Amino acid sequence: MLCPLAVFAPRHAVNLIRLKAFFSRQWQQMPARFMAVLGPCAARIQKALDRFAPAVLAATAQRVDNQVNELPLRTEEMTA
Length: 80
Description:
Largest sheet: none
Distance between the termini: 25 Å
Number of domains: 1
Oligomer: single chain
Number of strands: 0
């Protein structure tokens, strides 16, 4: 995620939005620890999403419902 040479195609938009939603939920539960560990990744996700066309993001956002079950998480990683 943090590699400056990473390439994100429009097909990656769904997972980037899901990951951004996951990071938002984590931010609410552990702000200081989250920012230290995952803050750079969250910022990179936003930079990647800013490069997509608004039409791609609008179409993609309809497919994401901001639920925990969207990401394959282990039990100890679950939120809520």
